[in-house]
Amino acid sequence: MNIAVTPPVTPEEPNVDLALKDAREQVMKETGSIPTGERAGSRKVYVAGELFPDIRVPFREVAVHPSANEPPVTIYDSSGPYTDPSVTIDIKKGLPLVKSSWQLDRGDIAPVETPREVKPEDNGHASGKNLAPRFDTSRHRVFRGVEGRPVTQYEYAKAGIITPEMEYVAIRENLRREQTAPCIRDGEDFGAAIPDFVTPEFVRQEIARGRAIIPHNINHPEVEPMIIGRNFLVKINANIGNSAVLSSVDDEVDKLVWATRWGADNVMDLSTGRNIHNIRDWIIRNASVPIGTVPIYQALEKVGGVAEDLTWEVYRDTLIEQAEQGVDYFTIHAGVRLPFVPLTANRVTGIVSRGGSIMAKWCLSHHKESFLYEHFAEICEIMRAYDVSFSLGDGLRPGSIADANDEAQFAELRTLGELTKIAWDHGCQVMIEGPGHVPMHKIKANMDEQLKHCHEAPFYTLGPLTTDIAPGYDHITSAIGAAMIGWFGTAMLCYVTPKEHLGLPDRQDVKDGVITYKIAAHAADLAKGHPAARAHDDALSRARFEFRWEDQFNLGLDPETARKYHDATLPKEAHKTAHFCSMCGPKFCSMKISQDIRRDAQAQNDAGGSLAEAEAGMAEMSAKFRAGGGVVEVKV
Amino acid sequence: MNIAVTPPVTPEEPNVDLALKDAREQVMKETGSIPTGERAGSRKVYVAGELFPDIRVPFREVAVHPSANEPPVTIYDSSGPYTDPSVTIDIKKGLPLVKSSWQLDRGDIAPVETPREVKPEDNGHASGKNLAPRFDTSRHRVFRGVEGRPVTQYEYAKAGIITPEMEYVAIRENLRREQTAPCIRDGEDFGAAIPDFVTPEFVRQEIARGRAIIPHNINHPEVEPMIIGRNFLVKINANIGNSAVLSSVDDEVDKLVWATRWGADNVMDLSTGRNIHNIRDWIIRNASVPIGTVPIYQALEKVGGVAEDLTWEVYRDTLIEQAEQGVDYFTIHAGVRLPFVPLTANRVTGIVSRGGSIMAKWCLSHHKESFLYEHFAEICEIMRAYDVSFSLGDGLRPGSIADANDEAQFAELRTLGELTKIAWDHGCQVMIEGPGHVPMHKIKANMDEQLKHCHEAPFYTLGPLTTDIAPGYDHITSAIGAAMIGWFGTAMLCYVTPKEHLGLPDRQDVKDGVITYKIAAHAADLAKGHPAARAHDDALSRARFEFRWEDQFNLGLDPETARKYHDATLPKEAHKTAHFCSMCGPKFCSMKISQDIRRDAQAQNDAGGSLAEAEAGMAEMSAKFRAGGGVVEVKV
Asked: Which positions in this protein are listed as binding Zn(2+) (chains A, B) (predicted)?
């Protein structure tokens, strides 16, 4: 990476120790600070489509030790071409294109003759050495939907058309399970409709019902399609973005790649300050995941940061600017209506959404209804033309436990439900943003109200944080709420990093946030009984029980950290095959004793028999015991 | 600290940066590695008893900036005399005594004429320079209950007697709230009976019903009494202990003090290997929190680590040894019965409890019922004589998601319920240990089964971990489950550190585990609607909204880390009073805009009026809006 405005950055990792450093050096090849290379113990594999043979859906495959006599484990892979050793990464050129020309071939989209020109205000009038370098967009043709033709995934779905994107996500969701394979269904899904196996037709139906979206701007052909919906795997979003105070181009592209490497399914660019436009080009052209933004942030920059000076015209122009760049979803705070603002007056923490407070200030100072609300149909028309999905923002979400589930919050939520129907009527894909700060006993009501008023459009929540007392640990206060609301039906969880409320996340914070939210999302998948979820836990547990340490590390969400922790007390290679760990030492290891018990039972039960027979014998005795009320004598 | 066997340890803190180092140096006075001194921004205060004026119940008081015009916030304080600047700490002498001689004065307890002598096997036959130095126990008189007299808190409670311990914990639980003060009750308690205000009589009733315990060996007079029960604040336990592989006396005392400094309510010493006896003396004599152990660990050491060689006599001797030292509760795996062992044969991870696997192995190899189960009445008699509480161990808890809530686990749980009644009949205090690894949708069943079969004896759970896929992050996978089960009714949560499954926790891991579990416990208190819980959140949220940065840090669970994170991007002192932070910068701060909105509303509403009046005006308009179906014009 060679960008003049900021010196090449050695990625900050303040707490890096030697072990981690080695791991980092291993993955950082000739791409400057951008981490590439396969994940530890993993291999990148692809599955082709059947309806659309050009599709290549990526997975991460973790092989286990031959002694286990088990197939490799397939893991959902959001890391993009960066972890494919056969792809040469050059972030000055951007990623290879994933999307085929099928929409163009159908005549549904067409190149825009005169795309919007970049204006000085798009970058906050930065100039000279303060201006971030422009990404070379000469290869990037700008498209738009053709009048009278379908363009969004929602429109295709409604028309009964299965798109390549739909088959792509169907394959992706099944994690290489066979349709005919037996399927564990163990969970409580609160009325969801999770299928045993995801077919392209099921995807189409879910999108047509508005219960799922594939956020995918036609101008972002680098995206590997993914689906957000209650009946699919729970997804996570990571926020990045420079601010008026900090950050640079290099940092943001690095954070994007870093976040997706660890499992972020989507990334939101929340940049403020100068150079917003140019940095966004770098991000989008190098993003294999959908990118979301909050256009009001840039619109506000264009009017010098004075909320009262915002106009529909400035905002509209910003939407087109970002839609042409390829942003996949916009957060639009159209539910912050003038009459709701007074409902926040007695709150402990007022309005904590930036977008929400900007709009509230505009409404109050003009004594007018929100221009986002008034122009909502026009917004829909613009977004439809590029298939930019709505993420209807919760500008009045609670910012503290005290303010959770109040009338301001729910009045806005009901409005978002009204707007959802309007957006659908215009052919748009929609998801709904949710809180925030909510104590555990009020979380379920959030999900129930959302399902009731927003017609099952996917819910996308920030946390929620379940207490306010732990600044510095809000990734954890919120992971509790995130796991629960994901279980209850939320489709995507927006991560929170340890720096929440305190400062801008650095690289380590981004990783901590992503891993923490992968935990929350997976815990939710397990509890919902998603049929693809438990194989991963079971494979890791078997590795644990059999002391396959390397497998245990590699199957974990963060092999480097697990290995480092293990090696902190037992560093020798021999310890990686030891049948004990430093917690109990060799004499006390319960797993070892438990294995001995099994082996003894086997030996006693049948000198020539198999372990399976021995276990069958034990199971039989156990059944006898239960039948006999606990009096049968057990001889093993 | 001056112990010959291991060199004075400079506490390891691998990730310490300068800011933290300063903070650490500040708190580490002339006590070697033991952290002393008040917590950041805090003052130690005491409240005297009314029934027993000698009682001095400690609290941590956090003052807020005078501009807030608010009283200081009172926080539960488990840190003991280490954070009292008026107490001189000398760990060679041990802590000052808290317990008065009331039991001796009543003739309920008496000195043991010939206490058990320390035997070579108590320290694993360590000798010479391998033997950890003995704590000077000459000041420590050993007591025992007098035949025919009450001795346990349970017996006093049943007899209608309010003890000083009961008043102590009553004061402690109220966090200096006035009995007559208004009380927010907002939560879902699933049938608990949490009172608005805790009286000593309420404590007595709860203990008499077996719904709460005060773990407090009469031989541990250094303890500041605390209560564990569903109708009280949720507590947390931290595990420490050396192992055959690692650790030393210094490390363990340091970890004890460190864990309680950050909020551990109880500490379990899970030492294995040599020197168990001597290290335990150091721990108990320096512990102001109750100390728990698993006596089978030491018993196994005494028979050379061979489970089959365990005998009732060795175990019994170990109970007396530890009871005389002052251990406050014993984990006893008496529910691992011979007939249950085969139920584990088809599990993915077999038996993962160390105690459970030791007993299972003993049962199988002798073809006999567990000697703990067979001798349970005798165990009760021994423990009653010192008021050692039972922590009935869940030796068959699941070690993986796959094994959760299976018949082995629940068969044992029902047995623990039977044993609870026997222990109560003998006058003992009892709590019940719980899992383990449980996906979210199976957590509630654990609590329900426990309440049903164990007669509301307090539940004390490890996590539970809600997924198996994140070694290195199991403090988080388990905090999700811990918060939920705490909400459902669990009285104490046993922490899990990031090193779980991988290695022995160091200092940083202990702190991470404690803070994470303080979060889970507090989130549970909030959700249960505990009346003393929310004041802390609200005080911090007000500080956040008013940009009182120092207050926000000091009111948090970990001021040092919060301050460090803030200063990473905005290090200057001036930024501590800035009305913005680095996340959004000055122009975008939603809280600032929200404050502006409030101020504007005030100005417009009544040029000479108060903010309260302005808000009242806004509230009125909002009511009009709602009544009018959203059509009233709002003028603010």
From this structure: 437, 501
Give the E-state strand segments of B458-517 in sequence order.
459-462, 492-494
pLDDT range class, residue A23, cuts 50, 70, 90? very low
User: Chain B within 8 Å of A603 (Cβ-Cβ)?
Assistant: no
Q: What's the sign of the alpha-carbon dihedral A109, A115, A121, A123?
A: positive
Which of residues 80 through 139 in chain B touch A, CB cutoff 8 A? none
Tokens describing residue A91: 């972030």
Q: Which two tokens stand for residue A22?
A: 């080695």
Count Cα neighbours of B55 within 13 Å in the Cβ-side half-sphere.
Answer: 24
User: Given the DSSP bridges, would you call strands A430-434 and A389-392 parallel, antiparallel or unpaired?
Assistant: parallel
State percent of chain B over pLDDT 90. Answer: 77
Calculate the average pLDDT of chain A.
88
Q: d(Cα A459, Cα A465) in Å, to the nearest integer?
A: 16
Residues of A in contact with B598 (CB under 8 A): 345, 350
- Chains A and B: how many Cβ contacts under 8 Å? 476
> Residue B611 pLDDT more than 90?
no
Q: What pLDDT does residue A252 have?
A: 85
Quick: pLDDT tens for A511-554: 999 999 999 999 999 999 999 999 999 999 999 999 999 999 99
Distances (CA, A) of A624 to B81, B143, B412: 56, 48, 17
Structure tokens at B127: 């000798």
| Terminal-to-terminal C-alpha distance of chain B | 66
For testing contact with chain B, the best of A341, A353, A588, A624 (most B CBs within 10 A): A588
Q: Is A10 exposed, middle or buried (0-12, 13-18, 19+ CB in 10 A)?
A: exposed
| Nearest Cα to Cα of residue A383 among A334, A450, A417, A456 | A334
Q: What is the model's pLDDT at position B581?
A: 61
Q: Are B314 and B367 in contact (CB under 8 A)?
A: no
Q: Describe chain B by its helix, strand, coil percentages, rounded to 5.
A: 45, 10, 45
Q: Smallest CA–CA separation between A97 and chain B, in Å?
A: 32
- Give the residue from A555, A545, A532 showing the smallest Cα distance to A186: A532
Distance CA A153, CA A161 (A): 9
Measured distance CA(A446)–CA(A438) in Å, rounded? 9
Confidence band (pLDDT; 50, 70, 90) for A568? confident
What is the maximal distance between C-alpha atoms in chain B? Answer: 88
DSSP helix/strand/coil, B470: coil
What is the reported pLDDT for A242?
72
Closest among B293, B254, B258, B327 to B513, alpha carbons compared: B258
Q: Which of B289, B284, B285 is nearest to B214 (CA)?
A: B289
Adjacent-strand bridge partners of A110: A144
Residue A609 distance to chain B (closest CA, Å): 15
| pLDDT score at B303 | 96
**pLDDT tens for each residue of A255-306:** 999 999 999 999 999 988 889 999 999 999 999 999 999 999 999 999 999 9
Nearest 5°: phi and psi at B178? Answer: -80, 145
Domain A105-534 in CATH 3.20.20.540? The answer is yes
Residue with structure tokens 């927010």? Answer: B184
Interchain contact B622–A (C-beta under 8 A):
yes
Classify strands A42-48 and A56-62 as parallel, antiparallel or unpaired.
Answer: antiparallel
Predicted confidence (pLDDT) at residue B3 exceeds the cutoff of 60: no
What residues of A are in contact with residue B484 (Cβ under 8 Å)?
Answer: 440, 480, 484
The structure's pTM equals 0.91
The DSSP element (H or E) to which B58 belongs, if any, is strand B56-62
Range with the poorest average pLDDT among A171-180, B16-25, B146-155, B462-471: B16-25
Q: At what angle do helices B312-325 and B295-302 cross, to 10 degrees?
A: 120
- Taking only residues 375 to 414 of chain B, the set having a beta carbon closer than 8 angstroms to any beta carbon of chain A reads 399-402, 407
